[in-house]
Amino acid sequence: MSRVAYVNGQYVPHKDAAVHIEDRGYQFADGVYEVCEVLNRQIVDMPRHLERLGRSLSELRIEWPLARKAVEYVLKETIRRNKVTNGLVYIQVTRGVARRDHFFPSADVAPSIVVTARNTSRAAADLQAEKGIAVVTYPENRWPRVDIKTVALLPNVLAKQNAKENGGKEAWYVDTDGNITEGGSTNAWIVTRDGVLVTRPAESGILRGITRAVVLDLVEREGIKFEERAFSLEEALEAREAFVTAASTLVMPVVKIDTAIIGNGHPGSIATSLRQLFHTATDLQVV
Ligand code: PLP
Fold it and tell me: Whose CA is closest to atom 8 on ligand 1?
């Protein structure tokens, strides 16, 4: 089956899909994005993702490229046309195409929108979750507005590549206070020696993950002991469990940080049960 992408009003073959060389996403990383999980032909937590997209757009003073209802339709249609059963749908909005100039273009320049969708292997992801992943720490070097989900991901690319070259699947940023902020494309969690689940508050230093928000709902529902506070690398190395969350990974256990084995080196019970329960707390909309 050939893949299809939605680009500025048209569904085009994925292999031919293109934006103009003067698109500001290409020239300045002047754009934002969202990624939603697709589960059994249902789109997971679309309202929350679109709400965050709206916030990212408004923080950068980019207009919605289409009415929100139309964006919902395009997301679903792109999933349908690509016959995605389990996978991901991606939306990117940039400030549009204009002659290269740092200043915003004139108001008549329309934002660009691209939507793609693809299948991913649930079996492979579940197998990975049974083993857990290694993370590799990296000095926090991103701008302070990591609350905006922008396509300016160069620091994330470099941190994740460093993780890969050192045997990890994800990077964990460590700030100048020695605290873990988040992963290169995930939020970071630990379970302390005393069995308390800890994640950093979303007020600064991290993206307010949608998966994180769902897990917080679950934690409350299940009555799991929980503290929302900064935690240090030192504390993480001593933790009973660690895990990361994102729409692309769901709840993914961490069994190694740099060279240190976490807990007994196997996925922890809290991470495992949160992964199993995850979709009982999500909003699922049939595509
Ligand atoms: N933090 C960063 C830097 C991310 O890029 C992502 C997802 O891409 C997340 C956290 C997790 O966010 P979500 O759960 O909404 O996918």
Answer: 185
Between CA 196 and CA 193 the distance in angstroms is: 7
Global pTM exceeds 0.90: yes
8 A C-beta contact, residue 229 and residue 201? yes
pLDDT computed for residue 1 by the predictor: 74
Those residues of the chain that have pLDDT short of 70 are none
> Among all residues, which ones are annotated catalytic?
149
Report CA 23 to chain centroid distance, whole Å.
Answer: 23
DSSP β-bridge partners for residue 13: 4
Domains belonging to the chain, first-starting first, are 4-120 (3.30.470.10), 125-281 (3.20.10.10)
End-to-end CA distance of the chain: give it in Å, rounded: 19
Packing angle of the helix pair 46-59, 68-81 (nearest 10 deg): 120
pLDDT at position 42: 98
- For residue 211, which of 63, 58, 88 has the smallest C-alpha distance? 88
Spacing, Cα 108 to ligand 1 middle (Å): 32
Residue with the two structure tokens 């679109």? 50
137 close to ligand 1 (CB < 6 Angstrom) = no
Say if ligand 1 is within 6 A of residue 45 CB: no
